[in-house]
Design goal:
The protein is of the alpha/beta class and 284 residues long. The chain has 10 helices and 10 strands. The protein binds NADP nicotinamide-adenine-dinucleotide phosphate.
Length: 284
C-alpha cells in the first residue's frame, strides 16, 4: 500500500480529474449549521464534500467553499464537490433543469465536480433517463464526472451492457456491511467506491474489538473505522457537525492498522443485517 495522506486522490475513469480520497458528508447537517461545518472541514484539510439535492444544503456548502476561497486563499479547483439527484422528472429536459438548478445553488464557478444518481429505485427506464440527463449536463461542462449511488451488481451490469461505466458508485461500506459482490464488480471495472456511513453512525462505539484497536493505536474508534476504510481502498465520507470530531476524523495519517487487524475487522461482516443506512444493500 502506498503511503496515504490528506492529499491522496483517486484517478477517475474517463476523466483527468482526481478525487481526494477522504470526503466529508453533509447528510442531516441542518442548513443553518452546514456552512460552518464545511468551512471547518476545509480548514481541517478535507477537499471533498458529499452533498445531495435531498439534503437541502447545496447552497450552504457552496457558500462555505466560496468563503474559504475568499478568506483562506483556497482555490475552486482544489475542492471536489459532489451532489446527487434522487428521481427523474416528467421529461429528460425537466430533469436536466433540476440538475442545472443544483449547479446554480452551489454556485461554484458554474460546475460541480461530480453528479450521482442517488438510488437505482426508478426502474430501468428511469435509470436510463437520469443517466442521459447527467450525460447532457456533463456535455455542457456543468458536471466534470458522473456516477451512481446504491447501485447493486444488476444495475451496474445493466449499465455496462449498454456500454456505460459510471466513474463512481457510492454505497454503505464498513466492517459490518461490506457488500463484497458490489465491491468486487466495481474493482474489476475501475469504478471508484465511496463508502457512506463509514463510522456506522456510532452504532458500534461500544464494540470490544473496535475499542481494543482504539487503545492499541491510541486513537478513537471512529479513526480506526476510517483508517480501515482508507486501507481497503475506499473513499470514506464521514459526517460531523461537531468541530472537534471534524478535525479528529481527518487525523488519519499518523498511524496505520497492521494487516492482521484489518483482517480481524474484515471478519465482522454481517451482510444486510449490519447495514444502518437508508437503502437496501446487496451482500454476499
Ligand atoms: N448515497 C446515499 O444514499 C447515502 C446514504 C447515507 C449517507 N450518505 C453520505 O455519507 C455521509 C456519511 O454517512 P452518515 O452521515 O449517514 O453516517 P456516519 O458518517 O457514519 O455517521 C455520522 C454520525 O456520527 C457522528 N460522529 C461523527 N464523528 C464522530 C466521532 N468521531 N465520534 C462519535 N460520533 C461521531 C455524527 O454526529 P455529529 O454530527 O453530531 O458529530 C453523526 O451523528 C453522509 O453525510 C452523506 O454525505 C450517502
Amino acid at each position: 500500500m502506498s503511503k496515504l495522506n490528506l492529499e491522496s486522490a483517486f484517478a477517475l475513469k474517463g476523466s483527468s480529474l482526481k478525487m481526494p480520497v477522504l470526503g466529508f458528508g453533509v447528510y442531516n447537517s441542518p442548513a443553518d449549521v452546514t456552512k460552518a461545518s464545511v468551512l471547518a472541514a476545509l480548514r481541517a484539510g478535507y477537499r471533498h464534500i458529499d452533498c445531495a439535492q435531498y439534503y437541502e444544503n447545496e447552497q450552504q456548502v457552496g457558500e462555505a467553499v466560496r468563503e474559504w476561497i475568499a478568506k483562506d486563499g483556497g482555490k475552486r479547483e482544489q475542492v471536489f464537490f459532489t451532489t446527487k439527484i434522487l428521481s427523474p422528472a416528467s421529461s429528460e429536459d425537466e430533469t436536466l433543469k433540476s440538475l442545472r438548478q443544483s449547479v446554480d445553488k452551489a454556485n461554484l464557478d458554474g460546475y460541480v465536480d461530480c453528479f450521482l444518481i442517488h438510488t437505482p429505485t426508478s426502474g430501468t427506464e428511469g435509470r436510463k433517463h437520469l443517466w442521459n440527463a447527467l450525460k447532457k449536463l456533463r456535455d455542457e461542462g456543468k458536471a466534470k464526472v458522473i456516477g451512481v449511488s446504491n447501485y447493486g451488481v444488476k444495475h451496474l451490469e445493466e449499465m455496462v451492457a449498454a456500454g456505460e461505466t459510471p466513474a463512481i458508485n457510492q454505497i454503505e461500506i464498513h466492517p459490518w456491511c461490506q457488500q463484497k459482490p458490489i465491491v468486487d464488480f466495481c474493482q474489476k471495472h475501475g469504478i471508484v467506491l465511496q463508502a457512506y456511513c463509514p463510522i456506522v453512525r456510532g452504532a458500534y462505539a461500544g464494540d470490544p474489538l473496535l475499542n481494543e484497536l482504539a487503545d492499541k493505536y491510541k486513537v478513537s474508534w471512529a479513526q480506526v473505522l476510517l483508517r480501515w476504510s482508507l486501507q481497503k481502498g475506499y473513499s470514506p465520507l464521514p459526517k460531523s457537525d461537531t468541530p472537534s470530531r471534524i478535525v479528529s476524523n481527518a487525523d488519519l495519517y499518523s498511524f496505520e492498522l497492521e494487516q492482521a487487524d484489518v483482517d480481524r475487522l474484515d471478519q465482522c461482516d454481517k451482510g444486510a443485517a449490519g447495514a444502518v443506512g437508508p437503502n437496501p444493500v446487496e451482500c454476499a
